[in-house]
Amino acid sequence: MVTLAEVARHAGVSASTVSYVISGKRSISATTRDRVERSIQELGYHPNAGARALASSRSNIIALMMPLRTDMYVPVMMEIAIAIATTARGHGYDVLLLTGEEDPAAVRRVAGSGLADAMILMDVELLDARLPLLRETGRPAVLIGLPADTTGLTCVDLDFAATGALCAEHLAELGHREIAVIGEAAAVYERHTGFAERTMDGLRRRARELGLRLLHRPCEGSYASIAGTLARVFDERPGTTGLVVQNENAVDPLLSLLRQQGRAVPEDVSVVAVCPEQVAVQASVPLTSVAIPAQEMGRRAVDLVVERLAGRGLPHVTLLPPELAVRASSGPAPAGG
């Protein structure tokens, strides 16, 4: 491992000069700084995190609070996390991943220890218990998600309310009048998780405006649960001709069950999904869908938190507009549907 002393010898300067270049604590001439930075790059020197913290009062670490729950679709969360880690490295930061069901105690632990310079929070609930303490600490932070009250917070998310409205509009334009939502697991709604609640708000509001009958049924991820949910939908609303799916685990079993029941997609039933593009295009019937922009959300979150660390920008909400990709799973409502 390359040491600071080796960098100093390579650059022809003192070890303290190298330290000042790294910490920024003293003004160094541009010529000397360039020489030191070239030596750091050529030798592949990486300052020890503890030494950086002592030198600059910065750890150059961003804490990512990403609770991994059994009722959440982990691949999307990991895609966001990878985008965060990659983008953070480009800004010179490492990422500390916290995957437990992080509560206010975790925020207090990170803020109080100085372990991380900033935080990114995922799995945001409408009344998230972490937020009062986050506001109190004043630690730079970005939320991937939208709570009910965004005052003083910086947030980035897909506009899930507009996403729900877009799904309703697409089915209405095709002549569908009775639609059902195959939703996330019941626990996701019980926690009032922001993305799920906002999607349903957008769907309900637009459905009322368009005169659609809307049925919402949460669904666990197992095949048996999906079979039971689908049977319940058609028992309660036999005239249902449009399905909106916001549950990635339900996609393949749902299409298989519709096929077994003799319901052709899209001739008998149209299916629109809110899911990653890869899930949509690889389904047995390529799905009309609104994609989850996981990588974009991760990149934006890091860019925003770095801005806050630099003292730039005010708290604000960034909502990414939804885009509907029409594929083979949606078509005109059947006659009499």
UniProtKB/TrEMBL annotation:
Residues 2-56 form the HTH lacI-type domain. The keyword Transmembrane helix does not apply. Keywords: DNA-binding, Transcription, Transcription regulation. InterPro entries: Cro/C1-type_HTH, HTH_LacI, LacI/GalR-like_sensor, Lambda_DNA-bd_dom_sf, Peripla_BP_I. Residues 3-32 form the HTH cro/C1-type domain. This is LacI family transcriptional regulator.
